[in-house]
Predict the structure of 4-alpha-glucanotransferase.
Amino acid sequence: MHSIPGTLMLLTVKPVFISGNMTHYRIPRMFDIRRLVLVTILILSTTISVTDCITFPCIAPLLGPTIPSAPSREPSPARSRTPEDPMDMQLRLTIRGGDLAVSKTPRARSESGVGDSTGSETDSTLLDVSSKMRVMSSVPGNRPITTGMKIAVKFRINYSTRWGENVIIVGSTDELGGISNPSEAETRRAIAMGKGKVMRYIANGDWEYVTVMHPAPTGLSYRYALVREKGEPLVEGGIRYGRYLDIDDLVRQSSNRRRGLLAVGSAGSSSSLSEAASRQEPMQLEVRDQWRVSRQNGEDWVLRTDAIAQVVYGQGRLDAVEEAILDGKVKHAADVMKHAEPQDGEKRAAITNFHLNVERTRVPLGCAMAVESAALLKDVAVMSCARFPSWELDLEAPTQLLPAQYKYVVVNLTNGEIVDRESGAPRWLGRPVGILQQEGIRNSKYVVSVRDEATTDRWPVEKADRFRGTGVSLPLFSLRSRSGMGTGEFEDIKLLVDFCDKVGLNSVQLLPLTDTTAHAHATWEDSSPYSSVSVHALHPLYLRLQSLPDLPLDVLREIQDTVKSMNEGSNQTVVDESCGSTLLEPLDYEKVMTAKLRLLRMAYEASGKRVVESEEFADFVLDQGYWLKPYALYCVLRDMYGVSDPSQWGEMGRLSFAQMDALSSPGGNKYNACRYWYWVQYHLHKQFLDASRYAAKKGVALIGDLPIGVSRNGVDIWSRPELFRLDKRMGAPPDAFTELGQNWNFPAYDWEKMMRDGFSWWRARLRSMNMYFHSVRLDHILGFFRFWDLPAHAVTGLGGHYFPSHPITKEELDSKGLWDRQRLTQPYVRSHLLERRFGKDWENVVRRFFSQGLHGTYSFKPGLDTEKALQDAMERDPVQVQGMTRQAVLHALILFLNDRCLIRDEKFPDDRFYPRYKMWDTDSFAELGHDWQIKLKELHDAYFSWRQEDLCEATARESLRHLLAASNMLLCGEDMGPGPACLPRVLSDMSIPGLRIPRVTGGPTSEYPYLSVASTSTHDMSTLACWWDSLPASSRDEMWRSFGCTGPAPLKCSPPVAKQIVQSILASPSILAVLPLQDLLDTCAATVTKDPKSDQINFPGTDHLWRWRASWHIEDLLSNKSVVNHFASMILASGRYKR
């Protein structure tokens, strides 16, 4: 590969076709034809990469030697995953025997002064716009110029403190603590270890710290904190890993000028670089920061997340601003800066280099941030958004004009007019104060970086009209398209995004997409998307097989035939006995997975070799190997042994991580088998990433779902067993919907061990999701406060307690006179109760399961005293009870087993106890004396309320802040169910929107908090129409009023009624309104379902198979103009954001 300097950005130029001595190349559109000509006249540091090793002898002499690019700071996740649009206009580069010709495809610009289509003419304005383009495009690939330099950096921040308080700075250099990614959690940990530096107090709330670095790094990360003599440090807020100071970029500003303009991003001449590196005295950088509020200022924080900043508001901004600069619609600082005459004895006026930086997301499309300063600028100067939502501007301010006032404004990119101006007092640029000040100023070696905060308080219009987004939710397998093989697939996301783009939706929420295959052969038992065998691996169910590369014709034909046969029965109905409803062509999980796995093997054997030998494939395996290798080996062993339980694999079930790596790496005896699963995941990754990028480019954010649990026989338990308490399970206590509670059968986490390594396992999960998603729904966020802990032998959720929690102690029971532990902790079984439950056959039940004690008491026989033992016994040899099914008998036995007031702690059975949830529902409680009832109820209420509050809050804050620091995704919490009193406060403080569903949360939709996600239902609930039709009259009237409606409540949820309820949700203040696809379709007469019950996705506590699929093909929804107009008008009328 040859590298040739000369473009503004990194371009990959690939041959389109070769004819004779001419090779045609296609170059991605930069902005207009002038930019291509700049390839031949600008000396810059980035490169063109020519993949077929063809040189350019005609332009190489003009451009000079290649300057190798340097590693750059990690780009914003959203920008890095948004590719060049293949539909964008392209530039064609044609080489004729060493001569360069340029043509524009498909159209050429017509502005005067631009070269013709062959590129034979060069506009004289090219030199003028070149420097502006450099400033507006801060490309992080330039050769670092700070190597070997001595640089003094002065950090300044204003924060009013009290006596005994100090401001401390923690950062990535050794001097500042060596914390490479100073998240809020890492900063607290560093301070606890005595790392960081205390800043020096100056006056009027100003704090300062000076560090001299030699050699200077290209950049450093840092964060401020307030430390007190007593109490926890107060760490400032901010995005992800704190602030980042791009030292190399700032040094360029003082080393390079064109027409007095700081050329940010250009490499400069070699002489200027050598001069900079050889300076004996230090270069001066002054950083002026403003304290960033912590996450309590939720609105400002949420607007900076990827989902809103990068996807909804950020797409296409950089191009728009640079186009406006080139077209002269707006002014750059170079054109409007004021200059001063040299003072006596000076050859030129002293200047100070300022780098202004402000973060603001909600700048209207077609507009840009700009700076106005009567003292320094003749007109407003537009800012760069290369690092959106950061806006940046570089000024060479004559020192004699300082101090100077300035303000941020918003300009229209089509005419340059100011359309908005920040409120509040003017900001000030003051003279720099520091060592070598005057000399540094005269020699242009003093750069001041000003980091401003643009909170919503300064923008009245923004504060009055908050951002409110709208989305649709569904399982991907439920999406129906004509190209899918009986299920929705990753490529179908593009069609759904097109639908969202048409109707005004800006987010799509999907159920978990990770692999759930826990059996060697496809079975419906693996159909739940919430039972992942790997928290990283994607499910093969969602792969579009016909899009695999290099498929032989016979394999492709068989795939196409299978797709056709899967879609032929699109009008067939199936009765689902588990829920008693009729489903329209539901997902046949076993049939689809069997076909896909068979065809995947065929495709791999026929065409997989080229891919697995490619460099891109090798890079994927290398980057993802930490989870990919254990997962692939797990799949190989699962299929080899026929079971997914590693305890049945012999020695293979007890492998160390190093042994797993050796077996699955080249040379290992399982490598060839593992490579197939690498290949499957590679293609799943590529297809999903492509769909994600497509969505981002359309301004539609993808919202993922992070399940709270993992399969007990999955990869994560096998490879990292130390992170789990394998003798415990997670679930939920009884509620209005489930008398026995829920047992999810997921192993419980060991929070203490996870905490010790900074929740690295959770952070890795978030980073994996961040490759594809822009926002994440935290399933059962209550689990981060406390889990409902169950023993491994539990079947239901009745016998659990909170973990972590403060138990009831032996001493407490003694102090209250509750001395009879046996009576309170053993199942309360008496003859009259047995007869009441089992009727005349009660003695048969006793003989099978119970031992008789004194005074008509009974106890469960040894070996039959757990829920699992009772379940197994009833399956092997069920006892017959007249008028009762086998399941009803088991249900009654389980209620007897849990008929107690207190539950003993398994490790400390004589010292620690937990109240049985709602113990007053038990016969054990009912037949106690009144005095003991009162005392036990007091202990119960204390345990399930205030007693755990501090522990719950501390646990949640510790875990959630690590998850928040793992990415810049918007995290939302599914907080349904009984939660601690601290739940709303913690979510608000940490800027995590909670869920609001009218039937659960109650209250008027108009009073929902801004930091919330409003919806009509979830996948575990009946649809809006089904729920409404089943409401009693009194409840229906109350709900109707909560939606802001007047008059009598309708009896049936017809499309107009559904529309009115959905409009109430859309009108709520919630930052997001995410509607299930079923409820959205039910607002339109053309798309309403015939059987509302059939549209429920999951029925908790049943063997429902996750089979629901949309009744409409997505292609038909897209092409139906009346349907599209119906949804678009409804969303437009809500006043929610539409791109």
Summary: The radius of gyration is 33 Å. Residues 422 and 459 are 5 Å apart (CA to CA). Residues 615-641 form the longest helix (27 residues).
